[in-house]
Amino acid sequence: PVLAGMNGSAIENFSCVIYNISLMNCTWQAGRDAPGDTQYFLYWRNSRDNDMMECELYIKDENGRNTGCRFQNVMITTEKAYFLVNGSSPGSVIQFYDEYIELYKIEILTPPLNVTVKCTRDSVSCLITWQPPLTSHLEKATCLEYEISIRNK
C-alpha cells in the first residue's frame, strides 16, 4: 500500500519493553526527513475489544518533540497489541507508523523469588530452590526456563 505523506517522515526504530510486571516504555526516533516542527503522537489498543488510547505520559527530547511513551498498569493479554504513531506538521503531511506486538515477547521478567542454597557440610552437593518470577500474564510457570551459573571460589 502507498502511504500518504512525505517519504522518510514516519518514525523509525520503534521499540517497546515491559518491566516490573506492569510498566511499559516505548521509544522511537523522528523520521530522518521529517521537518523540524513535526510532533508525533502514539495511540494503542491492547485487545480487539478496547478503544484506541493516546499515550498519557510522553517522553520528550530537548526540543520538546515526543520520542517515547511511559505506560502504567499494562495487562498482557494473549492477543497482539496495536500501536500507531501519527505525525503532525503545520506545513507537511507526515506518514504514520503502525505495528502489532505480542506483549509477552517484549517482557523483561523480574528475577526468580526466594532463591535459597543449601549445601552439605563437605560441599559435595548443594540444593538450590526458587520460586517463579512475578508476571501479569502467566497462570502456569511451567513454560519458564532457568539457567544457573555456578562459580567455584
TrEMBL record:
Primary location group: membrane
One GO cellular component, as annotated: external side of plasma membrane
Molecular-function GO term, any one: cytokine receptor activity
Domain Type I cytokine receptor cytokine-binding: 13-106
Subcellular localization: Membrane
PANTHER family (UniProt xref): CYTOKINE RECEPTOR, INTERLEUKIN 5 RECEPTOR SUBUNIT ALPHA
Name of the protein this chain belongs to: Granulocyte-macrophage colony-stimulating factor receptor subunit alpha
Taxonomic source organism: Phoenicopterus ruber ruber
Top-level taxonomy: Eukaryota, Metazoa, Chordata, Craniata, Vertebrata
